[in-house]
Amino acid sequence: MACHAHCRRLTPLERHARELRRSDAEGTGENAPMNFPMYTVPLEDLLQMTDIQPHEVLRARDVLVEFHESRGNGLFVSHQWVGAGHPDPDFKQLQVLQGALRRIMQNVHGIPPDVPSHAVFPDARSWSTAKLRSSPLLVWYDYFSCPQLEQKEYSSLHGDGTSSSLLQAITSIPAYIERCAFFFVLCPVIESATSSKLFSRHSWSERGWCAVERFCRELSEDSSYIFIKTPTVLEVCLYTRSLVEPPGEGKFLVEADRSKLGPVLLGVVRRKLRHLLKIRDFVGYRLLLNSQNVLLRGFGKLELTFEPIGGFELDDGMELDAAAVAMSSFCYQNGFTSVNGLDSGGLSPLHYAALRGDRFLIGSLLAHKADLHCKSQKDIPQAYIMPGLSPLAVALMVKHNDAACLLISARAEVSSYEMQSASGADNAEGISLLCQAGCSPHQRGRFGVPAILCAAQWCALDSMGELNCLSDRTIDISQALFYVIISSRCRAEAVQWLIEAKADVDVTYQSPPFLSIYGLFHAFMDMQHRLGRISPCSSVCFHTEGRTPLMTAAMLGQYESAAVLIAAGAKLAACTARGLSAADFARGQSVPEFLTQAFEGNLNGCRRVAALAIDTSKLVEERF
Length: 624
Hints:
624 residues; 7-stranded mixed β-sheet; 34 helices; 11 strands
């Protein structure tokens, strides 16, 4: 048996990977193109700044250093432009970055994972800051590192397509990120005096340019990144988001940017595909190959290829019907020898076809006896795959609703897993399809929580509304406030929606049943906290009894949500069973002034911030 396994004939995919490894060994590896030099600012110069000067001024003063790995580690800073024509006119954002970096360099030993990361990776430990102190830091920040003053050059991005220094720098962003050891997201809560808009982690995640930068980081060798909310509140994100939050669905002030950026990101995907083959990560390769049209959704028509391996030929005697050709080609490209084979990730060909959303391909596989009810066998956190997911659940997760209709018509089973996938993906249409097929909106997901709470933990507002409308009985949605607030996609609009739907702003948290999966996770995190492994996730599990949504928001640095809750009348004096109030949880966090004022009895700032936070109609004019 061992000899037989050793002598197994390689699939075309494995042979192709071997050839790529050979070409890489011969020095023909492929890196992201750098069309403009990578200019950076040494950390010591950044920390001495009192205002933000553009690239040209810093270059004339010899402040900029052209990056090379031999000079130190690169630090890429992703952020939003707070002003029109200037990234930070009041120096509020960069001051937060300076404070955070000073603390890291002096006495902070670890940065904890955020709550969703800990939920995905329960054994995750704090990220060691010793890495940041191991070599000199060279900081890439767009206003410093890219040409700014030649306004006419920027028009070429939207005009005739002629080359410019700025455009060359923009198209080099994937290369800059690839060369940086660290990626920081600078996202403090800031009120813009010039635009009457609020900036925060949520607004950063919505902005198209920031999502593009995040996408490039997630497809680099190290996909983790660090959120900076205040100088004292930093969190590490360990999971990827692009599959459920494609960058092309972000907000771009200039719509033409989408079509310009699409080919750049397609190049990122293709380089990553080559890399995955070289390291023989065939599961990662299949996931990326078949999710291209999801990841690049919103960037217009691109020349996607699902058949990168040449040499496909039909076996002798095989009928030349289109379904057989589609099925055989798909298996050839993905390294499957059977329509019902499982790869090392526990996924079948039909799972990958559902991820691609190709109705004809799915029909071809079903016509050749593919198992409609095959379930995933393993956890693949980077793709939001858990054991027990059907091809239908995968299609719903990435909003391939046409493919979902086909699978349902073929009599695919509808259950809690499918409802959880649609709910978390904010797929209101998918929820409707499931309910039409006999699934209940009251289905409980893998962790034993109702579907509406599954939607809330992803801040899936469309799903929450759809589930609420389809419910045939009153749903107590008060607990959903906690799930929204701990969500990585937490937004004030979802908190406000729940309040308007009669959620109790002072409700106390209900612990899950101990013997449920969610209950066991709670117990594990509580134990970690008692043993001294303190993190945002362990804190919310330790401080359970008597905890309110406002306390949770203060604990996790969700300052927008705290403002909305306070404006809605949440009790500031309420305490947990251990006697701690929201003000106690916020102590030591360098909280925004509007929250400090609220704890002192002045609620006007929170009311103003709450009004800004739920107004999504304004968009600051940003160059990139």
